[in-house]
Design a protein that fits this description.
- There is one protein chain.
- A hairpin with a 2-residue loop joins β4 and β5 (193-196).
- α4 (103-121) runs antiparallel to α5.
- This protein has a domain at 103-203: Nucleotide Exchange Factor Grpe, Chain A, domain 2 (Roll).
- 56% of the residues lie in helices and 14% in strands.
- It has helices spanning 2-24, 40-54, 63-100, 103-121, 127-146; strands at 149-151, 164-170, 180-185, 188-190, 193-196, 198-203.
- By secondary structure, the chain is of the alpha+beta class.
- It is rod-shaped, with a radius of gyration of 55 Å.
- The strands form 2 sheets. Strands 1-4-5 form a 3-stranded antiparallel beta sheet. A 3-stranded mixed beta sheet has the order 2-6-3, with no helix packed on it.
């Protein structure tokens, strides 16, 4: 009798334990409680959606950004134009300095050339001496020509006040009116710049 009562008691205790265990386990289809924190994956997706909403539309820029870009481009173009003008100006200055750096000394040497020519026009019995003087004169002339010196053509040319300085006129049947009939002093150009006009006679 006692054994049967003990068995029933044990059965009741086991059933009570099973009921408590079932109550403690959550059901698979449990509905989430409102206000509960989302799972980590759901939270990341929500953040991405929020970033997309706050981001600017693709391919578009704000008016402020467009204005800044236009101002920068205009400033860049002005700087480029100023630089190009500066480079051209400095190149011209360097070219002028190179072309006319020797103008003063060449102008002074023109008198030496004049005296050489006058000396060579006189007759001399010493032929070797004359040949030596002619060689020196030619050497000096070649050096000056390499520096840009050029004789101005005058005899038989039309009178040009830009290159000729008329000191007298004459009636010469061998020349047409307005032609240069004689050269009193040769004129020269240095790199196409007149540094001394020709002193000439002009036919009436």
């Amino acid at each position: 009798m006692t054994t049967m009562m003990d068995n029933e008691k044990n059965i009741q205790e086991e059933e009570l334990k099973e009921e408590q265990t079932a109550a403690a386990e959550p059901e698979d289809d449990e509905i989430p409680v409102a206000g509960a924190e989302p799972e980590p994956e759901d939270q990341e997706e929500a953040e991405r959606e929020s970033d997309k909403e706050n981001a600017e539309p693709d391919g578009k820029e704000t008016p402020e950004k467009a204005g800044e870009d236009e101002a920068m481009n205009a400033k860049y173009m002005r700087l480029m134009a100023d630089f190009q003008n500066y480079r051209r100006r400095t190149e011209k200055e360097k070219s002028d300095i190179y072309a006319y750096a020797n103008e003063k000394i060449v102008t002074q040497l023109l008198e030496v050339l004049d005296n050489f020519e006058r000396a060579l026009q006189h007759e001399c019995e010493d032929k070797a001496y004359v040949e030596g003087m002619e060689m020196i004169f030619k050497q000096l002339s070649d050096v000056l020509e390499k520096s840009g010196l050029e004789e101005i053509k005058a005899l038989g040319e039309d009178f040009d006040p830009n290159f000729h300085n008329a000191v007298m006129t004459e009636d010469n049947a061998d020349y047409e009116s307005g032609k240069v009939t004689g050269v009193m002093q040769k004129g020269y150009k240095l790199n196409n710049k007149v540094i001394r006009p020709s002193m000439v006679k002009v036919n009436n």
